[in-house]
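Dissemination and training. As part of the outreach component of the grant, students in the summer workshop were shown how a complex can be specified as a set of sequence lines and then modelled as a single object. The example used during the hands-on session is reproduced here so that future cohorts can follow it. Participants entered these lines:
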Amino acid sequence: MSQNDQVPFLLLIEDDDAIRTGLELALTRQGHRVAAAASGEDGLRLFKEQRPDLIVLDVMLPGIDGFEVCRRIRRTDQLPIILLTARSDDIDVVVGLESGADDYVVKPVQARVLDARIRAVLRRGERESSDSSAYGSVVIDRSAMTVTKDGEDLQLTPTELRLLLELSRRPGQALSRQQLLRLVWEHDYLGDSRLVDACVQRLRAKVEDVPSAPTLIRTVRGVGYRLDPPA
Amino acid sequence: MSQNDQVPFLLLIEDDDAIRTGLELALTRQGHRVAAAASGEDGLRLFKEQRPDLIVLDVMLPGIDGFEVCRRIRRTDQLPIILLTARSDDIDVVVGLESGADDYVVKPVQARVLDARIRAVLRRGERESSDSSAYGSVVIDRSAMTVTKDGEDLQLTPTELRLLLELSRRPGQALSRQQLLRLVWEHDYLGDSRLVDACVQRLRAKVEDVPSAPTLIRTVRGVGYRLDPPA
DNA sequence: GTGCTTGTGACACCGCTGTGACAGTCGCCA
DNA sequence: TGGCGACTGTCACAGCGGTGTCACAAGCAC
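and obtained this result:
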């Protein structure tokens, strides 16, 4: 938020000379400060020395590969990491996100695409730095314990608020009724009552534009519910 | 506060070497002056010697833990303290704020996020150190220790005044009855007495235009109370 | 003692919450 | 494509719990 004036400092880890120097040039021209490394080892060293704001990391590296670099960094730090992967290989994507990366880009990559991803990831990080998060017109303020829609207070009840807070701690992740029961109600067993559904319904009535066609709190059939991150 | 120049002077207390040196570097690059300590004892000593403008304090420390460091500092000083906590553990958060911290950040932490929080807390502090703040027609004068409404002295009792001051230290933030009890009364446990409510009621009677429909001191159902910042 | 402040407990009120029945919807399979 | 079964949405209602309010007595300073 206060950082909008400051130039982001990136670390680019990529062994292919042509791609590395090309991206370094392009990203510099897009207004970033860039450091570059040609191997995983050099990358980790540079990371510790220079503390970049974000890392762009090739997956296929000689020696320590990108996934491993990612995991090692994640042990102590949570700066954004964008993976560069050779093909749109879904397995790679999964492993990458599991190893703690924030986003991935498929090679060959256009500098302006990469730049757009970089800015998106940095923006996301800044939004999370405040205690509030926005889902379309709905804004959750964790410190004030209020939820607003188009700027107006939604007056959620305590249970509705807790439910929304728990969902928003894991945006995009489906939570079962059991899990929600534990997280929100601190019960263990739900009979066959409509407890969770009823609360979700009440929450939708306040939060959604069209409660009968929810776009925020989605039903995951056979599982439970999921809070969709903003588009 | 010994340092009144432009660059904020931070004290970082963190026992993990990797995180400490990493954050020290990153924060320095973000434009802060940073001193660092690896234990609670060292931290307290450095604090007395160097008088930083703000402290970033890990909770899990060998020997004196972060909460205790926080409490000891708070006995004599009001400088902003940001806690670093291992997980988004709600209990930790509550205890942290009760021990007198101004904010908390969950580890692993992104340097950018921490920087944003630091600037936010410092900004808040600047607003406060101007010794008066206005909430609509209600003006709190910290140096005179008076509260006026439409220019007339409200004659708050000592407890009412302390309650209002604690609320106004965190405008817009909901505070639980437990937290208020610790901050204002320095008790640990509230039975099921209406202590906080009664005091809030008396304060509202003096401060609000329509005490039965409060606009300044809002009830946050299931949580506690919150002082609304001026529109 | 006098006057003010503060903590306590009783009480009423209001709105939240959980329940269960029923209707509606979705997906699967023939 | 249509039907069936399972799953989900919806609703009304009664009980409950949190909050506002108040009176009173103890504490305290003068």
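The mean pLDDT of chain B is 86. Students were then asked to discuss how this feature might be tested experimentally.
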